[in-house]
């Protein structure tokens, strides 16, 4: 049984304001534009729907225009999460999106590629490419 989760951290420069980006990361309607086919919210639980599958994640942290952190409900490892962090470069003023995720070691490259694809969809939706 492989439970070797590794932390990945990916950074993307986004041509948009932190508030617009935060909306795409923290609301069901925003997340359904790029992260899943559909997203429903029940309390603190976000239901992410892809094709015929559904996964639930609890929002653990939300700081306006800064960070959103989720934990997959079916993941028994309490220390894992996926997080969207918005950082502003003090020198350039660029808005960066940092994605932090915990993935199975053997799936690391696939997971990184999947995040790259999802963020491309996000950038496209924001007109930021």
Task: Characterise this structure.
- The chain is of the alpha+beta class and about 130 residues long.
- The chain has a single domain, classed as 2-Layer Sandwich (Alpha-D-Glucose-1,6-Bisphosphate, Chain A, domain 4).
- About 25% of the residues lie in helices and about 45% in strands.
- It has three helices and seven strands; from the N terminus they run βααββββββα.
- The chain has a seven-stranded antiparallel beta sheet with strand order 1-7-6-5-4-3-2.
- The radius of gyration is 14 Å and the shape is globular.
- The N and C termini lie far apart (about 40 Å).
User: Can you say what the CATH homologous superfamily is?
Assistant: START domain
The CATH first-level class comes to Alpha Beta
The sequence of SSEs as H and E is EHHEEEEEEH
Mean pLDDT: 94
CATH topology: Alpha-D-Glucose-1,6-Bisphosphate, Chain A, domain 4
Strand order of the largest sheet: 1-7-6-5-4-3-2
Main pleated-sheet profile: 7 strands, antiparallel
Please provide the count of β strands.
Answer: 7
Number of domains: 1
Give the % helix.
Answer: 25-40%
Sheet-strand content, in percent, reads 35-45%
Q: Which architecture does the CATH hierarchy give at level 2?
A: 2-Layer Sandwich
Structural class given helices, strands, pairing? alpha+beta
Shape annotation: globular
Poorly predicted ranges: none
């Amino acid at each position: 049984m492989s439970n070797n989760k590794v932390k990945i951290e990916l950074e993307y420069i986004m041509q948009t304001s932190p508030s617009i980006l935060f909306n795409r990361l923290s609301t069901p309607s925003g997340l359904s534009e790029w992260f899943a086919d559909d997203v429903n919210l029940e309390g603190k639980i976000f239901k992410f729907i892809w094709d015929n599958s559904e996964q639930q994640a609890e929002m653990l942290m939300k700081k306006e225009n800064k960070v959103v952190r989720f934990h997959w409900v079916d993941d028994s490892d309490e220390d894992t999460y996926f997080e969207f962090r918005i950082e502003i470069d003090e020198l350039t003023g660029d808005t960066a999106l940092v994605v932090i995720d915990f993935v199975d070691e053997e799936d690391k490259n696939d997971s990184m590629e999947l995040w790259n694809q999802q963020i491309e969809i996000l950038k496209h939706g924001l007109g930021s490419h």
